[in-house]
Prior knowledge:
This protein has two domains: 1-85, Roll (Structural Genomics Hypothetical 15.5 Kd Protein In mrcA-pckA Intergenic Region, Chain A); 86-128. A hairpin with a 2-residue loop joins strand 2 and strand 3 (37-38). With 128 residues, the protein is of the alpha+beta class. It has helices at 7-13, 20-28, 87-104, 113-123; strands at residues 5-6, 32-34, 37-38, 44-45, 50-55, 58-64, 81-83. The protein has a five-stranded antiparallel beta sheet.
Amino acid sequence: MSGGVRVDKFLWCVRITKTRSLATDLIKKGKISINGEQIKPSRDIKIGDVIGVSKANATFEYKVVDLLNKRVGAKLVENHIIDCTTDEEKDKYKTYQLAQRAYKGFGTGKPSKKERRALDDFLDWENE
């Protein structure tokens, strides 16, 4: 394929984003860059460009190897982009995920009937 493909469409085609409109929103918010530069959704992407995706506190980088116009299956994505993300950035993201899991883990939401009875028993121990 000669020329280029719109960035928002390419991000959707190689499964970096779930929808094309989500790709457009991420670009408008400055979460996506090409070769270190902020871009617009209509910018064409070319072979050899490096896509930077900011996620949480880490930046993932992908090098464009081949262009495409249609969404491909997950197994075929590796034919079109190469993951160039450093181990340091991957570790940053894993740390973020662990922190979120610990934060959102136990104790959120309404207690179950069993937990409620245990809590009532614990709070009522001094009245016995």
